[in-house]
Amino acid sequence: MSSTKIVHSDWSGDRPTKYAPIRYNYLSEPHVQTSSAMHGITDDTVCVLLWILSFCSVHSKNTFNYTPDWDSLDKRPLPQWYDEAKVGIFIHWSVFSVPSFESEWFWWLWKGDTVRRPNVPAYMREQFAPNFAYADFAREFRAEFFDPDQWAELFADAGAKYVVLTAKHHEGFCNWPSSTSWQWNSVDVGPKRDLVGDLTKSISNRTSLRFGLYHSLFEWFNPLYLRDKSTNFTTKV
User: What is the mean pLDDT of the chain?
Assistant: First the structure.
């Protein structure tokens, strides 16, 4: 498998310009979330963070208690393995891999900050139908060439000592079967598989690499985030 299949999406063929767009709630139209949805997001985020913390604790010899301030956090020691690793691989892979235009910030540059990269909205106007939504890219994110065992072996052969996968970027698409992402995850749409789980197993079973996850808490167009942003991020959950 060539490296381009890792960096870019597995999408191929003519760009979808005429089919009827699919809709994913706030992904295409503003709406008000229910209180149960708010709690669902909180629970899902906490579960992911706890999973990451529990993974890290397996490799820690000591336990430290920190307080939520910079003086305390800056006292955390740099793990020796990380200081010696030198080479690691950080993977951004999600729905934004389908257009493969600009970067993982594609949706924001299209709908949020149109001044910084005017070529992005211009590209969408020229190549796609007027009612095309970002969520419409999701079903083309198929990952049909994704072989986690091959990825793991390639990373190890490259000399990397650790791998970090973006489990969820600011677009909100989850690369695992999240139960609170409104059909906006890799099991319900697109690949129809647990990308996080599959790569986790392959890295763990076939290599000695350390594996971690990047999880973005905020989502550009999620009403919960926009509501909190409007009050200068003072919302208490």
Answer: 79
